[in-house]
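Okay, any thoughts on this one?
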Amino acid sequence: MQENLAIASVPMQEWGALYGAEEALRVGTIFQDLNKPFFAADSGKQGVGSGQQKDGGNRMDSGNREPGSEQQQREQMMAKIQETSFALDDVRLYMDTHPDDRQGLAFFKETLAKRKTLLSAYAQQFYPLTVDCSADRYEKDPASECYCWLKGPMPWEGACV
C-alpha cells in the first residue's frame, strides 16, 4: 500500500496591486502579492529578492559617458523596453491561467501597446530590434531597398552594455 507524504494545495492567484515596470524587473514579478523574498535562516545576510541589488543599485554601468550621448540614450531606451517586456511577459503568464480577467486583459493591452511604441521609437532613432520593427518600416516605405536589420551593432559588439 502506497502512502502519501503530503498533498499540495496551491491557492489560485488573484489580480492585485502591481509594481511599476522598473521595480517589477528588479524584484522579478509585477505582482506585489507574489514577491516573497527569500532569507537564508542561518546566514544573517539578506538573500536574493530581499530588495538589495548586488551592484549597488546601478542597473547599467554608464561609465564616463556624457549625459545625452547616443550610447546613454540607447541604454535608457533599452532599459524601458526591457522593463516593459518583462511586465508584458509576467501578465501574459497570468492571463494563461486567468483568460477572462478584465483587469489583466486591460493591463496586457496597455502594456503591449506601450512596448510596440517603445520598439518603434528605438527603431526610428537607432535600428530595429525585432523583425516586426523591420516590417513596420517597410509598411511606411514599401519602396525601401534597405535591409535595415544589419544597420545596428550586434549584441556582442557592445551597443547597450
Q: What stands out?
A: The two ends are 58 Å apart (CA to CA). Residues 155 and 161 are 9 Å apart (CA to CA).
